[in-house]
Amino acid sequence: MARLLMLVVAALLAACAAVGPNYQRPADAAINGKSANGPFLSGAEAAFVREPVPGDWWRLYESPTLDGLVREALAANTDLRVAAGNIERALAGQDYADAGRRPTTSLLATTAYGRRSAEEELRPGNPLPSKLTYGLGASVSYQVDLFGQIARTIESAQADTSAARAAYDATRVTVVAETTRAFLEACAAGREIAVANRLVALQEKSTGLTQALFHGGRGNSVDVTRASAQVDQVRSSLPALSAQKSVALYRLAVLTGHAPEDFPRAVQPCEQEPRLARPIPIGDGAALLSRRPDIRRAELELHSATARIGIVTADLYPKVTLGASVGSVGLGKNFLDADTFKFSIGPLINWQFPDRSRIQARIRAADADQQVALARFDGTVLNALKEAESALEVYARDLERRALLESARQKAARAAEDTQQLFALGRQGYLPVLDAARTLTTVEQSIAAIDSKLAADQVNVFLALGGGWEEDCARPRHDNGSFQRQ
């Protein structure tokens, strides 16, 4: 009988294989589509270059202040701390799964004073004496991974850990983008405030001249009231711009791990947002799909879901555990005598054969989870392409609008110069000079607003392209690239 049992175990060991599907990227996945791997649709070649997106794209602004803010955000941002904690939790799950490969050991030590029931020993009427007993034992067991359940569990845990790292990288992309956005918004609001103040000053000067003409009998009260109303209208834009700047400063404070009141004072006086040193490098669709961390995370979650099918499927088959134990049990007065020793060694086969219908239901649920993960993967890919194309298109069209406004500014500037010359020659009054200057300042105000919009567009482009995590100095790693505990 023992010989037959050993032959059965040997046959099971020889048939050892991981059940369930091996992960491979589905051939019909959206990421494999031709349109997903070609050039982007935007044809604004003057605004973009077909070069790889740099990991430290914010350095294209050549702003030491921005560089310092990004470094500070990467070191202290609370969202990154949460993402790092999620990696630690995933690593703990991976360690737990890895433990399934190692033998399990146990130690036992007991002592008791008592007696057995006389009837339990089939000796009614003859009470047994009370005695001191003891028990010592040690055992070791090892589950043979015949059908790969442990291997699939480890595979799923490793995919979950890699997905947590990808989530960290995605958070890093967002932190860099939002820090840059807040900095640009603070400076752009400062610039718009400066332009609005110039416009207010011009309008007040025009109003003062209108009042002087009225008091000199050369104007009327309607002109004075209209001019005063225009001053209030221009001035009304200042509170909103001031609030916009304050909100941007508060966001910078929180992004860099500080309370709102501790916003970076060096940014407060900024009145000119930095400009890109060169056209935006955008790469192509294939580079985008390989770079964006959210796409990598979605595929890793699909990998993990695929491995979990094998974990459940393995429950259809028997589990074999090899074990050995040694111990000593007896009366206290015979402690460790030869007659108290015992041992055992051999395999244990456990097969929940009658419960197959429940396991089949769990397999179907795991299959459904895999299909859900595949749908999310495809959706993430398509959404990434949409975000990139949309960001590029909006930026290109806003550049066109900016070019038209610049043309209008040049014309308004020539009109202001001509009006000033006519006034100098005595061929017209000073009010037209003020009107021409106000028109020029209004156009400049529109240019400041579109420049603010372009700065936001640039951040949206870089955010959609997924740059900003590759050169990660804030996240320590092992030499093999894994996350390092601190």
Write a brief structural summary.
By secondary structure, the protein is of the alpha+beta class. It has helices spanning 2-14, 64-76, 78-98, 149-215, 221-235, 237-255, 285-291, 293-313, 356-424, 431-465; strands at residues 48-49, 104-114, 131-144, 280-281, 319-331, 341-350. The strands form two sheets. The protein has a four-stranded antiparallel sheet, with no helix packed on it. It has a two-stranded parallel sheet with strand order 1-4.
Features of the shown structure:
486 residues; alpha+beta; Outer membrane efflux proteins (OEP); four-stranded antiparallel sheet; two-stranded parallel ribbon; elongated
Query: Strand order within the widest sheet?
Result: 2-3-5-6
Q: Calculate the terminal CA-CA distance, rounded to whole Å.
A: 55 Å
- Anisotropy-based shape: elongated
Helices and strands, in N-to-C order? HEHHEEHHHEHHEEHH
The total number of structural domains is 1
Q: Treating each run of at least 4 consecutive H or I residues as one helix, how many helices? A: 10
The structure class reads: alpha+beta
CATH structural fold name:
Outer membrane efflux proteins (OEP)
In helices, the fraction of residues equals: 55-70%
